[in-house]
Design a protein that fits this description.
Elements lengths: L7 E2 H8 L3 H9 L3 E4 L6 E4 L1 H14 L17 H19 L6 H10 L1 H13 L3 H18 L2 H14 L6 H17 L3 H9 L2 H6 L3 H17 L3 H17 L3 H17 L3 H18 L2 H17 L3 H18 L2 H16 L4 H18 L5 H17 L5
Antiparallel strand pairs: 1-3, 2-3
Helix pairs in contact: 1-4, 4-5, 4-6, 4-7, 6-7, 7-8, 7-9, 8-9, 9-10, 9-12, 10-12, 12-13, 12-14, 13-14, 14-15, 14-16, 15-16, 16-17, 16-18, 17-18, 18-19, 18-20, 19-20
Length: 395
């Protein structure tokens, strides 16, 4: 049990160590293990002094080679840590497969609860120089990091594995790793670094015909072009992403890309087209029940509706966007939706409320070390300008 961090549940204890419920009960009776139950599933945790002692004892007894006399390396140095990695890798992989559907919130909470163990597995991979396993686990967590606002941590962990010993890593994993690093860098506002990462991802993904991953990487390239105000390039990249996503029947990726096309249309003041694209994206995301991306698409739609004079619809969609982002726990999304609501209130000249909402959004972004996407930033800047002009006392 010493390999666990933040405790374990009955299932993980059995899978990793073979511990049965009677054994756990006996350890509790001997005051070696604590049982806590903040949720429906009980968790078991070694007392810290016991865990440290057990860890030191395992390290002292660990053989330097296997039964054939071959030196062990990586996670294979310790069977318990290897079992720990296998269990939590599978958990993270299962979670990632379910982060774009109606079980999205459940799996986000599962990853929240086990995040200490996931971090421990990543740290162990790094400590034992098992970079391939470390990268594979990090790839299962990229969307979790993005949604939860752990952009800096996720990027650092990915780059640590990618740059440690790239030659020995699978080429496709490296390409996907750099693509994942790119979106985390974008979320943190580092578009220059994101471009560098994507340059190491696009060509290998094209060569290997991984259309799903290529669609995602092209969408990221489109976001960089959008940030640079190169709207023709942004639209070309993202339109290709839509085509690839449709070809591999990936409605999440297609809808997300459509939402970005709506963002481009908004910036270019093509409000009718933006509304049409936004409605398509929202319909697709409601079908697959992806709450997190639906929140972003609703925000784009609200922005288009506001420009079209559809104030009631804009208010309704912006509020739903905020509620969904808050439910999922996406701090950058909450900030962007808060800005959108401030913009709608500005239409009614409710300047004190506008100032309060913009301030709240700024605080959220600072805490999350995140920046707004270009269309959201444009909304913010326009609303800020109107606020300081119409309500000089705010300055």
């Amino acid at each position: 049990l010493a390999v666990f961090r933040g405790g374990c549940n009955r299932e993980s204890a059995r899978a990793v160590t073979g511990a049965t419920l009677p054994l756990l009960a006996g350890l509790i009776d001997k005051s070696l293990v604590r049982r806590r139950q903040a949720t429906a599933v009980a968790r078991y945790e070694l007392h810290e002094v016991v865990r440290q002692f057990a860890t030191e004892k395992r390290q002292a007894e660990r053989p330097a080679s296997d039964s054939n006399g071959i030196p062990t390396s990586g996670l294979a140095q310790d069977d318990a840590w290897l079992a720990h990695y296998a269990y939590f890798y599978q958990l993270a992989a299962t979670a990632k497969q379910n982060l774009h559907g109606n079980e999205q919130l459940h799996w986000m909470l599962v990853l929240d609860e086990e995040y200490a163990n996931l971090r421990a597995a990543l740290d162990r991979c790094l400590r034992t120089e098992d970079f391939a396993r470390g990268l594979q686990l990090a790839l299962q967590l990229d969307e979790y990091w993005y949604t939860r606002g752990y952009h800096g941590e996720g990027l650092q962990r990915l780059l640590t594995f990618l740059q440690a010993n790239t030659i020995s890593l699978p080429a496709l994993a490296v390409a996907n790793g750099y693509a994942a690093a790119a979106i985390l860098a974008i979320a943190g506002g580092n578009y220059m670094a994101a471009r560098t990462y994507l340059e190491q991802a696009i060509a290998p993904l094209r060569q290997r015909g991984d259309q799903a991953s290529l669609a995602r990487a092209l969408r990221y390239y489109g976001l960089i072009a959008l940030h640079e105000a190169d709207y023709p390039a942004a639209e070309a990249y993202i339109a290709e992403a839509v085509q690839l996503a449709d070809a591999v029947h990936n409605p999440y990726e297609a809808a997300t890309s459509l939402s970005h096309l709506a963002e481009i249309a908004l910036i270019q003041q093509e409000h009718g087209r933006a509304q049409e694209l936004g409605e398509q994206a929202v319909q697709m995301l409601r079908t697959i029940a992806d709450k997190n991306q639906l929140a972003g698409s609703l925000r784009r739609l609200a922005q288009a509706e506001l420009h079209q004079g559809q104030l009631a619809a804009a208010r309704r969609n912006a509020l739903e966007s905020l509620l969904l982002n808050n439910e999922v726990g996406d701090p950058r999304g909450v900030a962007a939706s808060t800005v959108m609501l401030a913009t709608i209130l500005a239409a009614d000249a409710a300047w004190p409320a506008v100032a309060q909402l913009l301030g709240a959004a700024a605080t959220l972004l600072t805490q999350a070390q995140a920046t707004l996407l270009p269309a959201d930033q444009l909304v913010h800047d326009e609303t800020w300008g109107r606020l300081t002009t119409a309500w000089p006392m705010f300055q």
